[in-house]
Amino acid sequence: MKGKMKFLLVTAFALLIAAPGAFAQIEETSTLPVTEPLDIGGTVLQPGTYTISVLKRGDDNRVVVMDQQGNAVATVLTIPHQLEPNEEVPNTTFVYFPAGEGMPRALRTWFPPNPASRVGRDIVYEADRARQLARLASSNVPAYEGQLTETTTVTTVEPVIVAETPRPAPVYVPPPAPIVEAPMTSAAAEPVEMPRTAGELPLVALFGLLSLAAAVGIRFFRS
């Protein structure tokens, strides 16, 4: 009986020691279904079924994407996903950035099936692309400058918030004053006063002079 108990204790102790190593050896691999063009670290995957796995060659920060034939189509740099305050690990395996107009959808975070620690992996993007994604998601995006190499330094791109230009206050413009037209008067409506003459006396005098002149003329021709 004592021997059996001793055997069980030794076995349990051995399992406790081996457990962390066993979890570490679990392959972090997920099936990645793609129904539309998908950007993952700068490589655009066409619709199909892929697998995404942690690259186990001394660099656990890189993941490899393979097609159904087992060909590597992309090697992507990642960083551990830092949970924000009050953020919970989602139930989904993949988290995506919002799709931008004229741009393919981009993978943001992969949560590999790791029973030891459901730690997500944020995909790192080239700086220009990271700025686009930061603007779309209104959040920080891990990025790198230039070409992706073994010694690439990862930085963080913050979203650029464009301040709205305040609208000018409306200017009150008083309405134009009404135009009052003066009443039009007709020239024919008012009688025109003619200048006064000297009367009929000058006309009578002129007639008398003409008569006198005629009489003198007749008498002259008879004599």
What does this structure look like?
It is a single chain. This protein has 223 residues and is an alpha+beta fold. The chain has helices at 2-25, 127-137, 201-222, and strands at 29-34, 38-40, 43-45, 48-54, 62-66, 72-80, 94-96, 105-110, 121-123, 125-126, 141-144, 155-157. It has a domain at 26-125. The chain has 3 helices and 12 strands, in the order αββββββββββαββα. A hairpin with a 2-residue loop joins strand 2 and strand 3. The radius of gyration is 54 Å and the shape is rod-shaped.
**Helical content (DSSP H or I, runs of 4+):** 25-40%
Q: Helix/strand-derived class?
A: alpha+beta
Low-confidence stretches: 7-26
Write down the secondary-structure element order. HEEEEEEEEEEHEEH
Number of strands: 12
End-to-end Cα distance, whole Å, is 203 Å
What's the shape? Answer: rod-shaped
Which range does the strand content fall in? 15-25%
Number of helices: 3
Integer average pLDDT:
77
The biggest sheet amounts to: 9 strands, mixed
Taking Cα atoms only, what radius of gyration do you get, to the nearest Å?
54 Å
